[in-house]
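2 proteins. here.
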Amino acid sequence: MKLSIMQPYFLPYLGYWQLIASADTFVIYDDVNFIKGGWINRNRYLYQGQPKYFNVTMSGASPNKKINEVGLMPSTDSRYHPSEKLLSTLQMAYRKAPMYPEVLPLLEDIILHEEDNLARYLEYSIRRICEYLDIPTKILVSSQIAEKDSSLAKEKKVINICRCLGADTYINAIGGRELYRQEEFQAEGLKLYFIRMNPIEYPQFGQEFVPGLSIVDVLMFNDKETVKGYLKEYTLEQ
């Protein structure tokens, strides 16, 4: 069984979804420390040809807290609520994109989802986009794997989760090359691969292509079948 593990990110770039699609089971790593300035609560969209940041507004975020201990701003019916403002921002940026009518209901469902916990909010968004793209990967949540040894850290914790779930192959994002060693996994009878996204470009309002944006950008400019094809545009490296 092929397994991948990653912290929950907010509407992440295409490579994140390739990581999920490459595995039989994907674990949302919600019980590790929140990373300030990372991709857990923010991402980038395209506005007038330039990349801009958007984010989910948090409550009580701290690097001393686990991701699943961070809250969201309380829900309100006010049109000035951060979620409404974020949705309006993306509507303004992409209202002329070819797939806007089809993708907008998905974004509304995700962004306006009523939840006061950051990890559960992100989990919902991950599951919804997987459903939209027909990604069959089984999704689990790290904090709900009761048999794992939470006292472990770094690669030992990852190996322990692989063992708990019966995986024989672990697939990690390409950035993990500096974190994980082949010999450590081989000693446990595990194959270790790193996924690298192949170069992908698509039209963005006829302007110079801006790579590495949120999956929102990919969905707005490409029909569903094209995006499903993009999910396979990667290489596995050892």
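next one coming up
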Amino acid sequence: MFPHVSNANYLTLIGILVFLMAGMLMLSRGDSLLDKRRSLGIISILLGLYVAFWFGSRDEHGYGDTIFYVINYNAIDISASLSAQTVDIGSEWFFFVIGYICRLSGMDYHGYLTVIALVYAMTAVFAAIRFDPSRPYLCTLFIFSSLMFLGFGLNGLRNGMACHMILLAMAFLLDDRRITAAIIAFLALGIHRSTILPISGIIAAMTVLRDRPRIALGIWCAAIPLSLLFGEAITNIIMSLGYDERMTVYAGGELEGQDEFSSTGFRWDFLLYSALPIGFYFYVNIVKGLRDGWYNVIAITYMLANAFWIIVIRAEFSNRFAYLSWFIYPLMFAYPLANMKIWKNQSTMAAICLISYYGITWGLYKFVWNYI
């Protein structure tokens, strides 16, 4: 049922869907994208389920962190009750609970990988449905064609699923369901503690910086010379804090055979990539003169979290830090396209944006990493 999981196969599938979606948009009337009639999101849900089961069907070898998930999963002692397990509420307890329940139910590692892939994909889908209730498949395709979606679906899945839970929490905040959002964010911390960074960014964006996006931009810009001048020293300080042992591992380059952009040094190419949605935000905000409180929150959170990555950009495997902002990347484009009147022929322009967005992802895989 599922083809071999590979960059080429995945990008081909998403590419077909992107061009189909673009064609539908171009054939629709100019402002139909902004129609506020709610959709059930069936297409998005089916796509999310397919991707999740596809990722879960992969072999345990050859996908970086996958082998570690499998080893740790097989090591869970189901002869002891959950209460007897060594689970510290200050650690990533929720990820362990998921694994324990899967082991207790008799799942093999494929079932376990499918469960966590379902959390990864479906939290993003349900967030897309809430952010773009009329055309959720547009937002879903922006998410699924993002640069790191495939990478974190196969390698770094725990980081990815925690970040997508934060995406869902943001979607509930959009509807002023703060208690639900807080619970989801708490569970995300129980999967990957590094999500404290985007959570802090959201809090700052909703309070002191909500109407001050230029301050967030100033922080983002200041992070560039700060990284160039003091990046290594700051990275060493972060390593010494001991908040998350993986930060020391990632920053110190103690993993082998891992991620696609694991080379060290100041990555001007990825800095430019990170700047694209910021440029789009200020085009909408300043050039077009459009204001949206939630677009401000999304953009400010992205800029603050991305500024942290810029400071530690020299760290090996810095994609683990980058994803703490890049999981918001697709929203920086999808949200205004679906909710703000930017152009007269918005549907056609959205199609062009989606194709260009996918094209950047494909181009980086093809020409920068040579992975397809």
